[in-house]
Amino acid sequence: MSYELQCHRCGACCRHPGEVRLEPAEIARIASFLGLSEPSFIEEHLRLRQDRRGLALKERPDHSCIFLEGNACVIQPVKPGQCLEFPNRWVNLLWGKVPLEAMRRDYPMLFGCATFQDFLVKEASPDPAPKE
Ligand code: SF4
Ligand code: SF4
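That is the input. Now the predicted structure with iron/sulfur cluster docked in place:
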């Protein structure tokens, strides 16, 4: 079974501490969307990843992404694949395969996600009684 949760645009994942990694094609796409040259985009908006093997988006001092305005992503049409894949990639990898407590411990970002919280409530609820 494959799950496809619809994002509620709560912005919680964009405020979670961590790294949004960018591949070269994503750098080119986002720079073009913003009307910047790739070197300018890299200089202004990216930093070295913690493993020093590539680049990631800069974040604000409170750990929110620099492209988050209110609860909206200002690069929504071209946002990175890592953002597009959340939370469905993780739900499909983990749900029913990893104990809930292990998920809670190892993937705390999932538990701050509004659509995943709805999913949890729905999955934990018994089926509605059949209509008479
Ligand atoms: S790029 Fe957009 S979707 Fe991704 S973390 Fe930043 S604000 Fe959120
Ligand atoms: S935390 Fe979940 S519901 Fe909220 S913006 Fe991110 S993916 Fe969407």
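The chain has one domain: 12-123.
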